[in-house]
Amino acid sequence: MTDTPRSATLFTFNVGFGDCFLLRFQYPGSMRRHVLVDFGSTRQPESRPSNYLSRVAAQIKDLCGGKLDVVVATHRHKDHIYGFRTNKKGDAPGNIISSCNPTLVLQSWTEHPDAPTDATASPHQRAFAKALVNMNTFSKAIYRLAKADEKRQMFDSNTRQALSFLGENNISNKSAVKNLMSMGANHRYVCFGQDAGTSDILPGVGVDVLGPPTLAQNDKIAKQRSRHEEEYWHLHAAAAVAGLTAEDSDALFPGTVAAELPPWARWGRTRLRNIRSGMLMPIVRRLDKQMNNTSLILLFSVGGKSLLFPGDAQWENWSHALDQPDVRDKLKTVDLYKVGHHGSLNATPKTLWELFENRGPATKPDRLTSVMSTKHGVRGHSKKTAVPRATLVEALKSDTNYESSEKIKIKRASTEFYSKVELSFG
Amino acid sequence: MEQKAATRRLTVLAQDPDVTDKGAALTTRVVVPADTLAPGPRSSRIEIVDYDASADRFYGAFDIDEDDERFGAERDLDRLVGDPAFHAQNVYGIVASTLFEFERSLGRHLSWGFGHNSHQLKVFPHAFLEPNAFYSKYDECLAFGYFPIRGPKSDKVFTCLSHDIVAHETTHALIDGLRNQLMRPSSHDQAAFHEGFADVIALLKILKNEALVQFAVGKHLNPTPAGTISTDEAFKAIREGRFLFGLAQQMGQALIGMGRDALRRSIELAPSPEHYHGDLFLEPHDRGEIFVAAVMRAYLRVWESRLSGKIKHEGGKAQSTRVSAWRVAEEGARAAAHLLNLMIRAIDYLPPIHVEFSDFLSAALTADWQICPDDNTYGYRKALTQSFAEYGINPAAAGTQDEPGVWGLGTHEREISYTSANMDSTRWNPESMFKLLWENYEILGLKRDVFTRLNSVRPVWRVGPEGFVLRETVAEYYQLLKNARKADLENLGIKGLDFISGDQSVDIVGGGTLIFDEFGRLKFHIHNRIDNYEEQGKRLRSLWQRGDLWDREAEFGSFAGLHSRRAFGEPRYRQEGWE
Fold it and tell me: What ipTM goes with this model?
């Protein structure tokens, strides 16, 4: 049958800390289809050619023959969409991707541009979409606060670095978001169980959308979140923005003069600074996690094999899918697993890992392949918080054919920026 | 020598800047001990430190005008909200009056929960530019944030100006001093209790303010120029919680995003056992709302009963068709004051660890019974029992025929030996009390092969509303099996520990509260034993499911995180992490 791929190739690009995968389906004859899953980075490889991401984009264009069939942006974190940004000159990586004229751009329901005002959406969905806007404002302010703190020195260096990283990664990446909205002929914004709309574009390839659920689909989360989420991020965004100028004005009590801290109160100053750091970090992490949980989880099925791309989904996103018996059955036979969230603590739920029946020793036929895109030393400053998790990497090495983007050595003179995994069907 | 008054009055906001009387500030004068005050203000128990970590700015060490003349007559809201000296007085007054309320109810001076190295709770009224306020045990402080908002009255919200938020946080600090094991991860109820109880104390504290209740009544029922309202309407409004709802609609509108709308939510939570016994109210903040709703419903019952007692009835119907608005408010405020006192005293009758709402109900019934043997006048105990039952919560103790639900003493526990103890020193000396405990381990059901600590010995004198004096000694102990491995737990008979691996360890804890009468004889032993292994197993599984079993933040009880989650309404999940 001509409409069924005979093989697939996964190109994994080393973009530093970020995801960039090109999936090629090879059909009988010369027919090919190409799916780009994410293109972003927060820390590019140290030694790299100039305009590196544009070069990566050019290579993607070359590999797909100038035509992308589907572009998937799992969620809006910088390490997943930064490569879609454009510039006026037209040589930014996003311009090059855009010129590949994708037939379909696939994103999460949370990215629908009309979501905040869509009358047909549930109140939960509208509130969440509005909350997303405030989350972006908050991130931007936190990033600037962390940068300003390099002079002020109110936070310790680890906190400053973590705030800076998380703030930057959660910034809305307006140019990339806008480009994703405008490129291509069709756009779909989907949630768990919805049709990905790829059947005509990718003949013979099934695409299941396993996440994210909508808030209405996940009753437990809906009940909790509907309460104050929108207001919560609104308050934090406003506070963070005001925090940027807090030290420069006497706006709190106009006309009063700041007093010198008396000796008995100095103890309190140190403590309170630490309290503030300790308080901000969980808020920023919460935001980061919420964004991660807007990730699309896609399962491609073709020729009896399946490939799982979960973006950065974490437990709250995964739990809905893992509660469904038919989904659990499908996940048992996964052949290729794109490791979630760069190998972090919570993004490969143990329940999911236990389901994978193709895990096993090197001698196991049709052994599971795992592909991780990560960069050591970017996230986490201790063994306890390091990304990727050493225990997960150990398990992946022991039970799967493990591929890591870090194995692709990038130098200033490099001309090829990817590695390949081949899968044949039937 | 000149006699110094024991207390003084300080002007504070009755609730917050959103609750005004035709635009004028609604203030009240709270009673606080007449301590010597240093600039800050600072007393022997409380230090106000007006440092702002977001602006890196110190706003000043303020003096308090001991005659309360500076702010006593001030009704200009803008002036009060714009003056950091008033903020300092407001937060000091509310913290000090909450502490005073506890000490008066419990009949003794209380320690803060952060150990014996420090006597003064530090209070930061403008701690940071954040919508959060919390108690930090580690930092020995209450931190109150402020944040910008677009509104008609002010462009900023100061949490230190919210009476219920300040009282709420102070209550956390006080409970931690009284029952420090309640911050350990345990049952769903225990996690919820700290929040629910702090909400209840804060709400009853503002509702005992007659002027505020009168304001709520007047706002809702429009008294005639003579100050009367319809009797039927008054009863109906009390029963339906409409006065409270009216108040809730005004209170801290800007604070809803912080999740601080306990009064509104308690009224909206219709009675049903489903909330407590189902799985939708397992999160601490949600579950705490059930507790608040049950108490507030009891409050409305007592309010109605008190007002009814003041009106002549015939054939079950009030004879008078009109009633003074001040009378309605007075009874509401008195009901709140009595209930507040009762709630605080109940703490002494709680087990020290693994508290469930049913334990609290028995503790409250016992506390009231001990000091008000006759419940027939206003029926506080009946109201509490009925209201909690409506939410599916029944007393932990069977009680007696005349007093259902109160704690008792097991037959064998009556046999404890006092021969080794010096009756007088057991009232105050921990070593004497521990000796008494040691000699009676078996009778009291304690385990000898685990760590045991006597947390406190407290002599108390209490005076009831009818002048009845009660003298008791309260001692609490806990027992701890630390770093127990899976094999240790299985040897003890705890089953179903598939979620614990061989190299992981957990702590299991039990404990009890001993209450002795004025002759030094044991009256009550309220306990959750460490060797109730069936319960311990269930508890460990439940903690694991919530992701709290090995979570350091949960272990040490971070109210910063808890309150932030409360605002966000964030559920906690076991995360299946790659540790």
Answer: 0.80
